[in-house]
Amino acid sequence: MRHTPLLMTAATAALCIVAFAPRIAGAPGPPPPQPRESREPGSTTPHAVGDPTARIREGDMAPDFELDGSKGRAVRLSSLRGDWIALVFADRLETLPPLGQVQGDLRKLGVRAVGVCREKASRVQSSVVHELPILILADATGEVGSLYGLKPDGNSTIRPAFLLLDRRGVVKLAVTGQSLTAEQIRDLTTARIKGV
Q1: Which fold has domain 66-195?
Q2: Average pLDDT, 10 consecutive residues per value, the chain (196 residues)
Q3: How many CB atoms are closer than 10 A to CB 163?
């Protein structure tokens, strides 16, 4: 009986070495995110893909916030409930994927695209001049990015993220820490909604 704690410690250490060996050895990371319903042990689930420090996970209620928008007025996230929301975070307006290219496909699915970037309200409102067909919200201070776990401590930039929210505001898919193309966002959204 005296050896039981020692055996448990050794077993735990062995599991940690096995679990983290690919990362230590510099092996490539997990495959690109694929939406799936199953949660087999060791599988890559769609929530928090690519960023284990993200605070938002599949099944969470998306934290509510209010930001100035590209249409010249403040918008509260909860006011958009009733539609599915493709919520895309980017550090700058230029780094938002060109969602206008897939906006028609998203609307056919009942999805509204909303971009959030670390810009001043005047900058996102001027984006209307460029006729961006999606709502863009100005997170000038990065406060909303921090709320969503996308602004690392001591870093002023917002990491990219894509969240798919259902009509009630529940996160159904979260891909954080990596940029996706508009087409990837469309394809992931289509797969998730049609799989529901």
Answers
A1: Glutaredoxin (3.40.30)
A2: 45 40 39 38 32 72 94 92 95 89 92 94 73 83 91 81 96 93 96 85
A3: 24
